[in-house]
Design goal:
There is one protein chain. By secondary structure, the chain is of the alpha/beta class. The chain has a single domain, classed as 3-Layer(aba) Sandwich (Rossmann fold), CATH 3.40.50. It contains 5 helices and 7 strands. The chain has helices at about 15-30, 65-75, 95-100, 125-135, 165-180, and strands at about 1-5, 35-40, 80-85, 110-120, 140-150, 155, 155-160. Helix 1 links the parallel strand 1 (about 1-5) and strand 2 (about 35-40). The N and C termini lie close together (about 10 Å).
Length: about 180
């Protein structure tokens, strides 16, 4: 079962790329049988602003823009997700929200875990994502990883604190359980 680790920032020099690679390394290092983890870099898809007349939920995965079609295929190929999300101005990143909104059934009933980062550990962004993903009946796992730009970074960039690996392990356990239950 494939779990996509989505890098939710498209900014140059983004902190989230190092965070996502840490998540990928931690997930693959577990050696959990039956699970495959893959990075999905939102920046690579260049999803345009949602302007389509057809509501994505009614598009039947038939999109006019080839970038949205490629994004759709990447998301549809996964049974679950980890959103690596920054917190911008006490909220979720606009580009990630737009890309989420550009799709419909590709998200339906697929579990999601959260790894957030920001000045205030991305707590508000994660909570906003929980409200958003409920629209597609996604199961959001309770365990999450909240990273601080101050405490989980040093002069070289991302440097997760000692307890973060345990938090990641707990979130991954919960996510794999949810994916397994929904895919029986």
């Amino acid at each position: 079962m494939k779990i996509g680790i989505i890098i939710g920032s498209i900014r140059d020099g983004r902190f989230g790329e190092a965070v996502a690679r840490w998540v990928l390394e931690g997930a693959r290092g577990r050696g959990t049988e039956g699970f495959e983890y893959e990075l999905i870099d939102l920046k690579e898809f260049n999803v345009p602003l949602l302007t389509s007349e057809v509501v994505p939920g009614a598009a039947n995965k038939q999109y006019h823009d080839p970038n949205v079609t490629a994004w759709s295929r990447a998301i549809d190929a996964c049974e679950g997700f980890i959103f690596v999300t920054p917190e911008y101005n006490h909220g979720i990143p606009g580009a990630f929200k737009n890309a989420y909104d550009a799709l419909g059934s590709e998200w339906y009933r697929k579990p999601v875990g959260f790894v957030g980062y920001g000045a205030s550990n991305a707590i508000r962004a994660i909570e906003q994502w929980r409200q958003i993903v409920s629209n597609f009946a996604q199961i959001d796992v309770r365990n999450q990883v909240e990273l601080s730009l101050f405490q989980d970074a040093d002069e070289n960039g991302f440097a997760p604190g000692e307890r973060r690996s345990g938090e990641l392990e707990n979130m991954l356990n919960s996510l794999e359980d949810a994916v397994s239950i929904l895919n029986k």
